[in-house]
């Protein structure tokens, strides 16, 4: 009976020795220094462990993120520059409109306004009807309100309406579009 137990123990020792050699071999493999493999382009990654892959692409990924951010900033800069151009065009348009309004206001010199103000309303109305509607509106606009209303009352309805439209357009606070 001793024989079977000794053969069993030899097999058990063999198994233990086999397992110990496997463990010892795996520990020796784990302690070996790993080579840093730089992966570029479309090369096969099957030979590089996952940790090496992440380490190797870290710089490339950071450069790609930087490139994407730079592209986004360039797009934002282009959008801002386009808005600035649009605002400059709008500013030029408003300045031109303001200049036209100032020219309109300066058409009627104060001495010319005094002359028409001192005339009889029916005579002033007849003369203003013969003038350009813009000039007539500028003169009426600078007159005292009572005198202007009496003169407009003496004019033909079509001419008075035309002058009123010019006055209303010149004093409108609405910005040109």
Give an account of the 3D structure.
With 177 residues, this protein is mainly α. The protein has 3 domains: 1-32; 40-92; 108-171, Annexin V, domain 1, CATH 1.10.220. 80% of the residues lie in helices and 0% in strands. It is built from 7 helices and no strands. The longest helix has 58 residues, at 50-107. The protein is rod-shaped. The model is unreliable at 1-9 (pLDDT under 50).
Which keywords apply here?
Annexin V, domain 1; 3 domains; single chain; 177 residues; rod-shaped; mainly alpha; 7 helices
Largest sheet data: none
| The CATH topology of the largest domain | Annexin V, domain 1
At the first level of CATH, the class of the largest domain is: Mainly Alpha
How would you spell out the order of helices and strands? Answer: HHHHHHH
At a glance:
This protein is mainly α and 177 residues long.
Write the layout of secondary structure elements.
Elements: H1 2-31, H2 50-107, H3 110-118, H4 121-130, H5 133-142, H6 145-154, H7 157-171
Helix pairs in contact: 2-5, 4-6, 5-7
């Amino acid at each position: 009976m001793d024989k079977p137990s000794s053969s069993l123990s030899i097999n058990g020792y063999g198994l233990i020795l086999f397992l110990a050699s496997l463990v010892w071999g795996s520990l020796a493999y784990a302690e070996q220094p790993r080579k840093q493999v730089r992966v570029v382009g479309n090369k096969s990654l099957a030979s590089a462990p996952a940790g090496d892959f992440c380490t190797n692409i870290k710089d490339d990924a950071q450069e790609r993120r930087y490139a994407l951010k730079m592209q986004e900033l360039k797009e934002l800069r282009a959008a801002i520059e386009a808005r600035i151009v649009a605002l400059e065009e709008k500013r030029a348009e408003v300045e031109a409109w303001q200049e036209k309004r100032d020219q309109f206001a300066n058409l009627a010199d104060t001495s010319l306004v005094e002359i028409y103000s001192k005339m009889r309303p029916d005579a002033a109305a007849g003369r203003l009807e013969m003038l350009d509607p813009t000039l007539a509106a500028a003169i009426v606009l600078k007159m005292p309100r009572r005198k202007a209303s009496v003169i407009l009352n003496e004019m033909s309805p079509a001419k008075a309406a035309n002058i009123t439209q010019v006055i209303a357009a010149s004093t409108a606070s609405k910005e040109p579009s």
